[in-house]
């Protein structure tokens, strides 16, 4: 059953007033110091609103991304349904779906914070579809891609990487536990199925189609569906593969909870023979830069801030406990783990 927007969780982000743009929606009522409300929650901000906020010397406000994100999720479902029914999915449709989220990507440079802000309780398959496009585009920029057309292709390919799953039985996709060998062989068909879907539509460039077909290929030849190695794998597919593994492991699934980003980055760093080494190194470095200073919840219920991550022990950051000056090195206290990253 589709829930109304009113029933959805509120997705908000704090933003500096000087980064507001007309059309942003205010998340919470805004009051003057003496208690009078000046702008109610839900207001679509105009140029005049933004000027007023600047004149009031407001520094930061919260905007509501609920409609933006939920619409993207719903649009993703529509695209998957069209693919399942054999109907064409135009490149123009995908670009239109992504535009509001790309706007937030340009404003929010910290990809960890952005993904947390866009963390949905909705169906994992559709959340994953939307977010991989965003993450793949960010990684491409970190890798030095600057051409907007090329960045657009990578983002579109990331968004469509699992479109072939529209042809996979739902009972396999949503199975609350490990797949049998037979079921896994069915799942392994989705990259080629996705390629076949896009190959029927002339608007998609070969690079996009190849990235969709090859996003599960691995450097050591142990990937699928073709068992390609090294330079035989398209660069876009290599970027999407890293984004795919990171987001899948850090997301809540029907058969397990989220895995700490630190442990996932450690896993990626320790398995560089499977994915592209250069992409992994760039990705881990930039993600750790985003995570330093972040607020975290520990497995014993305490909270703190990340102060340091040893490159040789990525999974075990150093934490300064909230409300005190006590420092905990998780490498020395391996009974403790980072359970979640918290938005401040």
From TrEMBL:
PROSITE patterns reported in the protein's UniProt record: HD_GYP (PS51832)
Domain (HD-GYP): residue spans on this chain: 103-300
Pfam families: HD_5 (PF13487)
Entries under SMART domains matching the protein: HDc (SM00471)
PANTHER family reported in the protein's UniProt record: CYCLIC DI-GMP PHOSPHODIESTERASE PA4108 (PTHR43155:SF2), CYCLIC DI-GMP PHOSPHODIESTERASE PA4108-RELATED (PTHR43155)
Protein name: HD-GYP domain-containing protein
């Amino acid at each position: 059953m589709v829930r109304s927007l009113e029933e959805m969780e509120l997705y908000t982000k704090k933003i500096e007033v000087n980064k507001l743009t007309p059309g942003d929606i205010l998340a919470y009522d805004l009051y003057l110091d003496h208690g009078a409300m000046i702008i109610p929650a839900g207001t679509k901000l105009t140029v005049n609103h933004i000027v007023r906020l600047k004149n009031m010397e407001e520094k930061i406000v919260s905007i509501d991304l609920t409609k933006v994100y939920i619409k993207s999720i719903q649009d993703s479902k529509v695209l998957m349904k069209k693919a399942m029914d054999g109907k064409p999915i135009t490149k123009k449709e995908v670009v239109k779906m992504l535009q509001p989220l790309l706007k937030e990507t340009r404003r929010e440079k910290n990809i960890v914070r952005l993904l947390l802000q866009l963390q949905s309780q909705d169906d994992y398959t559709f959340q994953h579809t939307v977010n991989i496009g965003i993450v793949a585009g960010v990684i491409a920029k970190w890798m030095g891609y600057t051409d907007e057309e090329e960045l657009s292709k990578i983002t579109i390919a990331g968004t469509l990487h699992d479109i072939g799953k529209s042809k996979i039985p739902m009972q396999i996709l949503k199975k609350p536990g490990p797949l049998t060998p037979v079921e896994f062989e069915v799942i392994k068909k989705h990259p080629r199925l996705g390629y076949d879907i896009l190959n029927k539509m002339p608007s998609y460039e070969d690079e996009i189609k190849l990235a969709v077909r090859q996003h599960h290929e691995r450097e050591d030849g142990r990937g699928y569906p073709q068992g390609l190695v090294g330079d035989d794998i398209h660069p876009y597919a290599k970027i999407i593969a890293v984004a795919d593994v990171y987001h899948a492991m850090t997301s809540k699934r029907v058969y397990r909870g989220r895995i700490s980003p630190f442990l996932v980055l450690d896993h990626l760093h320790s398995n560089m023979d499977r994915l592209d080494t250069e992409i992994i190194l760039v990705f881990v470095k930039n993600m750790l830069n985003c995570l330093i200073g972040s607020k975290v919840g520990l497995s014993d219920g305490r909270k703190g801030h990340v102060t340091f991550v040893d490159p040789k022990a990525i999974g075990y950051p150093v934490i300064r406990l909230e409300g005190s000056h006590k420092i905990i090195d998780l490498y020395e206290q391996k009974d403790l783990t980072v359970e979640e990253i918290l938005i401040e």
